[in-house]
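Journal club prep, shared notes

We agreed each person brings one worked example of a sequence with its structure written out as tokens. Mine is MAPK regulated corepressor interacting protein 1. I'm keeping it raw so we can talk through how to read the token line rather than staring at a rendered picture. Sequence first:
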Amino acid sequence: MTSSPVSRVVYNGKRNSSPRSPSNSSEIFTPAHEENVRFIYEAWQCVERDLRNQMSGSERGLVEEYVEKVPNPSLKTFKPFDLSDLKRRNTQDAKKS
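Then the structure, token by token:
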């Protein structure tokens, strides 16, 4: 397995959009959790908008790809996983207990 550079999207913009209302759920979230989700949602919407504008040529330099020059050796064996699937499995395990 060869190691490849890790890339990340870096956003250099401001928060200014409103979040969507969450769907009905049996889960109860704390106000702090809701604020964190709202912040991430708003920031990501800005990133997507700025990336679209940048790709269409109307804006430049707001979104750039960050590539680590030297990848972290402790992440060498990291394998991505689906968080939704992990949550579903943990919920099912908890119900069995």
